[in-house]
Amino acid sequence: MKQLAIIGTILALLVGGWILMRDPAPTPVTVEPQTAAQAEPVAVVVEPAVAADEMQPQMVEESAAAEKEVDVSDKPIMLAQADTGAASTDWQYVDGTHFTRLVPTQPTIGGADKIEVAEIFWYGCAHCFDFEPYINGWAKKLPANVRFVRIPAMWNALVKLHGQLYFTEEVLVKNGKIADPEGFRTAVFLEYHRRGNRLASVDAIQAVFERFGVNDEDFKTSWGSFEVAQKMRVAEDLARRWNVASVPAIVVNGKYLTGAGEAGSYPKLLDVIDELIVRETVR
Question: Could you tell me where in the chain the CATH 3.40.30.10 domains are found?
């Protein structure tokens, strides 16, 4: 029996030493001679070692999460740079100085398929006569997304009579009765500003049409037509909505009102028009 006890003690020591070599504990362990029954708690030492192994993947997870956070933090920086670029557009011309913003935006002659540039004019206006070659040259190089229209002023009886002249001209041009529209416009301006003919009666106006091959019937039919009367009503309504006080005036897309007085000169007025078109294009 004494020999069996000695053998048991030796085996306990050997088992305890093997466990310590395999998973050393973080704190010193004093091994005392013990019986096989006392050696059972030694198996608990294995559990912290396994738990430490299981914690190792958690460290990897945290590292991966840190990398993802860096990637996410990069994205707002990119967006902020893009927003800064979009907001940094510097316009050359200023609202309240070179043009007036119409609030709310007003109607236009045509549809919303194009950006509309409207010239409000009067045949009896010397400034409109001077502006004519500038606006004609500009209108010949219109971008595909821009529509140019002319609208006569409608302030008083004589100005309205000239407005009816313009819309009669417009209808006859559309119907192929006037072969040279630009030549006709120039002739009307010259009649007023060079020949001293104020075109203050229907007969005086008809005489100009006759010089361009329009017969009596075509003139009178167009002059008194519903189409011309409707155009007159639209022109009066737009003049009121746009609050046009002088000519020549330009309204871009029912939103911006400008003129040579605001721009400073006719060439600058064309530049203002071009910039306003760009504003409407990029909005």
Answer: 100-282
